[in-house]
Amino acid sequence: MKDLEIDPEFAERSVNEGFSGGEKKRHEILQLSLLRPKIAILDETDSGLDVDALRIVAEGVNRYMADSAGTGDGVGVLLITHYTRILRYIHPDRVHVFSGGRIVESGGPELADELESNGYVRFGVPTALV
């Protein structure tokens, strides 16, 4: 809770009771850290976060991946987003563009940079950047 800058009094509340959007996102990452799944699907984790909350949440995801790598457990994280701003903090191994329920393009982190510069126009209506 300290790493995610969550007030300890939140531990006394029911899950998500009276939480703001940013607090809910931080608690999702806390749950990730506690439950330690082998595969995590993070759907629009950056949605509605201000710059400080975005940094804190991203650091939590990075810490989870680093801790898992350090123990040899190996985890997979599928991060779904429509915007590249979270990728300033979380550096993907692979980037996939989904459109119409299909992967229409795959590449390395440079694909995210291209999307930031040129948008999704050449892919049709996007559903997500992963």
Strand-helix topology:
Blueprint: H1 21-35, E1 39-43, H2 51-71, E2 76-80, E3 95-99, E4 102-107, H3 109-118, E5 126-129
Parallel strand pairs: 1-2
Antiparallel strand pairs: 3-4, 3-5
Helix pairs in contact: 1-2
Termini gap: 27 Å
The residue fraction in helices comes out at 25-40%
* Beta-strand percent range: 15-25%
Structural class: alpha+beta
Structure in words:
The chain is an alpha+beta fold. It folds into two domains: 1-77, no CATH class; 92-130, no CATH class. Helix content is 35%, strand content 19%. It is built from three helices and five strands, in the order H-E-H-E-E-E-H-E. The chain has helices spanning 21-35, 51-71, 109-118, and strands at 39-43, 76-80, 95-99, 102-107, 126-129. Strands 4-3-5 form a three-stranded antiparallel sheet, covered by helices on one side. The chain has a two-stranded parallel ribbon with strand order 1-2. A hairpin with a 2-residue loop joins strand 3 (95-99) and strand 4 (102-107). Helix 1 (21-35) runs parallel beside helix 2. The protein is globular, with a radius of gyration of 16 Å.
